[in-house]
Amino acid sequence: MAVCRMMISISVPEPIRRAIFPALGVLLLALLWQLGFILGGPFVLPAPLAVARCLARLARTGALWQPALVTTGHVLAGYALGSAAGLALGLAGGLARGLGAMLDSMSRLILGVPHIIWVVLALFWFGPVGEVVVFTAAIGIAPLVFAGALAGMRAAQPEFDELAAAFNLPRRQYFWEIRLPQVAVVLVPALATGLGLAWKIALMAEIFSGSTGIGGQIAAMRAYLDTVGTMAWVVVALGLLLLTDLLLAKLIAALPLKG
Amino acid sequence: MKLCLRSVTVQLAGMSILGPIDFDIAQPGLIALMGPSGIGKSTLLRVIAGLIPPSAGQRQCKGKVATVFQDARLLPWQSALDNAAFGLRADGMARQDARQVAAAHLARLGLCGDDLGKHPRALSGGMRQRVAVARALAVEPALLLLDEPFTGLDTTLRASLHEMLREIVAGQNLAAILVTHDPVEAVTLADRIVVLGGRPADIVADIPCPIRPNNVVEAYHVAAALMQRPEIARVFAAPLAYAGP
Which of A150, A183, B22, B81 is the most exposed place for a label (fewest CB within 10 A)? Predict the structure, then answer.
């Protein structure tokens, strides 16, 4: 047994070995999906194979790409705007205590408003256009990123401030080399969570605003009671979420924040 | 190098911690600053470094001061090389030039190759202290302040760092103040021993040490004699009195 384990550890490359258990998780979910189809029938859960065929057809005909591009654009735009606003306000709030307290209470109130309410309000303000989705995603994640940035600023270690003072570190350098890396420790999980949230909010906003993106396609499939089509677009959205999540993780890993 | 403290007092949170203290440094050499725990040695060092303004009195300092903190205080998100270049970059030197100078200082302290790219968590305690010393030396200070930098290190490592410190102070014609609890360390390294005592703390002894012990046994004898001097024995025997607001 030990020899066998040793042989596996020698022969299987590290990246594959690390991917085995996550892949098993996905496989287990697919099996549960298949079980749901067997027990509930195609109206409750369509067969995974039927969804795979539908996906292949969408890809072959080219119908997949336009909605996928539209939704990805909405998500990334909303994520970038919300993150930038949340980060800027969080950093400013961390530098000025009074401003931080004021923005914190505002942020908590905004965070308390359900996302669906923002969708409804945005539909009033912008009409059924893509801006509704971008705005809703941005306003949904901005408080999250703000909270992360503010917490990071407030968690600054006074020892490093003393170090900066001992070497007369200029203010700009102090901000980039001492404060920002400490903020990043709290901010990075908020940014990672925010991306997933941006996808969920964007899809919801698209469903309600009749967008041409994935959410719009899901709304159309629902109208036709097409569970196979609905699940196919859900799988597309999940795939894109995983892809963007992976890209964000790579981006964060490349930042000089080790330690 | 010229440092001059005149009637300096420090009050923190309404409590008198230090002074009034008169203290001068006019020539190179290593000064050991001793005293019981909590007496205010680190506070005095911070006043000398300019990190705490005196509540009263005057501080005059000509020449650059650099501090080595007790906990090394390296930035965890920067490599050993960038940590050592930190002070130079604070002085406005370009990153590449600062790295080159820092690398030379690290090499002098025995750190080179892969170690330069390591982050503090991957370095041993002794290596971290060397990086902290390199960071301080890189800015070419006239006065080097060392706040118990060797605490918690094993005996062999301490001995090698003592040797290194002695070479640096003599080689660069530096003035240095070493805060230490260890009288053997003090008599082994110092050209002058200053002892803080009382509440609020004042300098109770300022002893020149022109001759250093030749070996460890002799160092222990000299240290024992030092600790038996009445003004010093009294300070270490007395419990710290509370001098409330």
Answer: B22
> Beta-carbon neighbour count of residue A85 at 10 Å?
17
What is the reported pLDDT for B244? 44
Query: Distance between CA atoms of A187 and A88, rounded to whole angstroms?
Result: 12
* Residue B188 pLDDT: 86
Determine the residue type at A172.
R
Give me the residue spans of the domains in chain A: 64-254
**DSSP structure string for B50-118:** TSS--SEEEEEEES-EEEE-TT----TTS-HHHHHTHHHHHTT--HHHHHHHHHHHHHHTT--GGGGG-
Quick one: tokens of B237?
A: 């025997």
State chain B's mean pLDDT as an integer. Answer: 86
Nearest to A167 among B77, B86, B121 (CB): B86
- The residue type at A250: K
Angle separating helix axes A180-209 and A227-254, nearest 10 degrees? 160
The band of A250, judged by pLDDT with boundaries at 50, 70 and 90, is confident
pLDDT of residue A259: 46
Q: Quick one: chain B helix, strand, coil %, rounded to 5? A: 40, 25, 35
Looking at residue A164, its pLDDT comes to 93
ipTM associated with this complex: 0.85
Closest residue to A167, CB basis, from B76, B90, B119: B90
- C-alpha–C-alpha distance, residues B89 and B72, integer Å: 18
The crossing angle, in degrees rounded to 10, of helices A48-61 and A14-40 is 110
Q: What is the mean pLDDT of chain A?
A: 88
Contact of A68 with A241, CB cutoff 8 Å: no
Which one, of A149, A50, A171, lies nearest residue A100 by Cα?
A149
pLDDT of residue B165: 84
Which parts of chain B register pLDDT below 50? 242-245
pTM strictly above 0.80? no
Residues of chain B contacting A159 with CB distance shorter than 8 Å: 69, 71, 73
Distances (CA, A) of A259 to A74, B25, B119, B188: 34, 39, 6, 36
Using the Cβ of A253 and the Cβ atoms of chain B, whether some distance falls under 8 Å is answered with: no
Architecture of domain A64-254: Orthogonal Bundle (1.10)
- Determine the distance from the C-alpha atom of residue B220 to the mean position of all C-alpha atoms in its chain, rounded to a whole number: 22
Structure confidence at residue A10 (pLDDT): 59
Phi, psi of B72 (to 5 degrees): 65, -45
pLDDT at A258 over 50: no
A151 pLDDT more than 50: yes
Chain B within 8 Å of A181 (Cβ-Cβ)? Answer: yes
Cα(A83)–Cα(A191) distance, integer angstroms: 7
